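Ticket #4471: structure output looks truncated?

Reporter: J.K.
Steps to reproduce: submitted the chain below (460 residues) through the standard prediction queue, then opened the result file.
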Amino acid sequence: MRKTLLIARREYLAFVRTVGFWLSIVTAPLLFTLIIAVPMLIRTSAPVEVMNVAILDLTGDNVEQPVRDIIARAATPAKGEENSALRDAANAVFDKERIALVPLPPGLDASMTRAAAEARIPAILDSPDAKVTTLVVIDDDGETLHFRIWSTPEQRNQLQDKLYWDLQGLQYRKVALKHGITPVVADEMRAARAEVVSLTPGDGVSGEGGDFVATGLRDHGPRIVGIVLGFVTWFTIFSSSMILLGGVIEEKASKVLEVLLASASTESLLIGKVLGVAAVLSTVGLIWGGASFFMISQGASFLPPDLAQSIQAGLAGLFTPAYVALMLTYFIGGYLMFGVTFAAIGAFCETQKDAQAIMGPLMIVLMVPMLTMQAAIGAPNAPIIQWLSWVPIFTPFLMPLRLSEPLPLWEIVLTLGGMAVAATIMIAVGRRAFKQGALTGGKLTWGTIARIATRKSTEA
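Returned output as attached by the reporter:
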C-alpha cells in the first residue's frame, strides 16, 4: 500500500510541479471568461445610441398622437411588471438604445403627398447636420394604415421591432371603428387575454406557477445540469484516460517503467498511476469549482435583489445528497473502467502510433454516448437513450443525463450493478494486460486481449 501511495504521489507531483499545468488551469477559465465578458464589456461601454424620431402624419385623422403615445411608452418601459427584475437586468446590460421624439425637419409637412415626402427623406437622413435619424411616415388608403419607417442604415428595423404590435393595434382600432365599435371597447377587446397556466405536480394545488426564474430553474435546471455533467464526465474520463495512456507510453519508451517495476509490483504501479491522475483531476476540479463559485457569488451581488432571490430559490434543492452521491459513483466507475483500460493499452506501446490500431475502435465506442447526449437534449428519456444507459460502458456518461428526470429505484440499482460488474471485469483484464505489457511487451492485438481475458487469475 505504501508503494502504491508513493507512486500516486510521484504521478501527482510530476504534473503539479510543471509550469504548463498551472498555465493550463489559468488559461482555460480565463479564455472562457473572456469569451463571455469581452462582448458584454464592449456592449456596456458603448455609448448610448439615441434614436431621434420624427413623425409625418399624412392621414389627416391625427394618427400622429397615438403613435407618439406608443413611442413614449416604448421609450420608458413600465415598472412593476412580472419578471421586471430579469427584464431590467437585461436592459441594463444590452439595451443601449434610447428614443427621443423630435420635430419634423424643414422641407416636410402634412400637406405633402407620400411620394413627394419620400423623395426628400433620403437626402434629409444623409445630411451630416440632420437632427433626425428615423422618420415615420403615416398614410391611409381608406382600408389600411401604412407606417413607413425610414431610418439611417445603423438603425434599420430597430424602431419597427419595438413598435410593431402596437402599430398593428392602431389598425385593429381602425377596423373596429369602421364596424361601429368604440375605441375603448376595441382596445379592451385587443387587450383581453384568457388565463393560461402551465402546471406540473411540483407547483402544488394552488395553481400558482410561482416566480418565473425559480419555476424555470426547477423545471429545466435538472435537465440542463444533467446534460452539462454528462458532457463533463465524458471529457474528464476521456482526457484523464489519455493522460494515463500517454504517461505509460512515455515511461516505457524511456525505460522509466522498468526502473519502477524493479521496486514495485505491477498492481501497485497501475493503481498508483490511476490514483495520481485522479488526484490531479481533483485539484483541477477544486480550483475551477472554487473560482466558479466565487465568480458566481460576486456576480449575484450586482443583480437586483428580487432576481438574485429568484435564482437562489430556483437552485435550492437542485443538488440533493443522493443526487451528488450517484453522480460521483457513476463518475468513479467510469474513470476506473476506462483509466485502467487505457493504461493497459499504453503498457504494450512504445509510441503513440502503436496505440492507434487498438484506439480506433475504442474511440468509436466512446463516441456513441457523445452523439447520443446531443440527441438527448430534447428527450432525455427516449427509449434508445434508456437502453444505451443500461450498457455498462455507456452508463457513466448517460445516467447523469437521465437522472435529471425521476427514475425508478430498480433502474438505478440495475445500472449501478451492471457498471460494478463491468468495472470489475475491465479492471481485472486491464491489470493482467498491464502486467504482461510492462513485463514482456509484445504487440497488442484483439487476440492478445482475448487470451488475457480468458486466462485464469492464478496464471496472471
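Triage note (M.O.): checked the attachment and the full C-alpha cell line is present. Strands lie at 49-57, 97-101, 134-140, 145-151.
Status: closed, working as intended.
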